[in-house]
Amino acid sequence: MDWTVAGVVAHIGDCLLWYATDLVAGDRELGTLEMGVRPESEPEDLIATVNTFATVLAHVVNGTSPEARGWHPYGRADATGFAAMACDEMLVHTADVGTGVNQPFLPSTEIAAATLRRLFPWAPTDTDPWLTLLWANGRADLPGQERQVGWRWHCAPLAEWDGSNPRSSLAAS
Questions:
Q1: What global pTM score does this model have?
Q2: Could you report the per-residue pLDDT of 33-82, keeping only the tens digit for each?
Q3: Which three-class secondary structure state does DSSP give residue 167?
């Protein structure tokens, strides 16, 4: 990655606030605002910002009706999609931060598996969920699987998944 550790933490915060905003805004992309976490902030302030925005998103997700949708470039996500995307951002980018500060990160198997199943339903189910989540995000090789370059997740409700890896349809276009 070309980002600093602080830049990665700021990105996590940005994503959490974007996801809360996008879910509340509904089908409309809000191109009217600029929001961003300042990566030059003190580390403890960046962590407090991520915690705050995670709480904001949790309140939005919990207060949203199951049929509500929000705009995302990869599809009209429901609350579970936004929650899973936030988990993916926090898990994968925390691993990136861990690499940057030489502190390995290993999340719980349950959280990695739940995030993987919600966003990447085409991913293998007979492999380690954390390694497979990293693979699905293009961060790791998975034996017997093609490297995921140009990956995408499925953030719309799982009932709307067409059974394919959206990365494959991108490569065909």
A1: 0.93
A2: 888 999 999 999 999 999 999 999 999 999 999 999 999 999 999 999 99
A3: helix
Residue 97, classed as helix, strand or coil, is helix
Number of domains comprising the chain: 1
Q: Which ranges in 26-150 belong to alpha helices (H)?
A: 43-62, 79-100, 109-119, 129-136
Q: What pLDDT digit, counting tens, does each position of 74-98 carry?
A: 999 999 999 999 999 999 999 999 9
> Which class for 94: exposed (0-12), middle (13-18), buried (19 or more C-beta within 10 A)?
middle
Q: How far apart are CA 151 and CA 148, in angstroms?
A: 6
Domain of 76 in residue numbering reads as 5-172
Alpha helices in 3-78 (DSSP H): 5-25, 43-62
Q: Tokens in use for 47?
A: 């962590």
- According to DSSP, the residues that pair with 95 across neighbouring strands are none
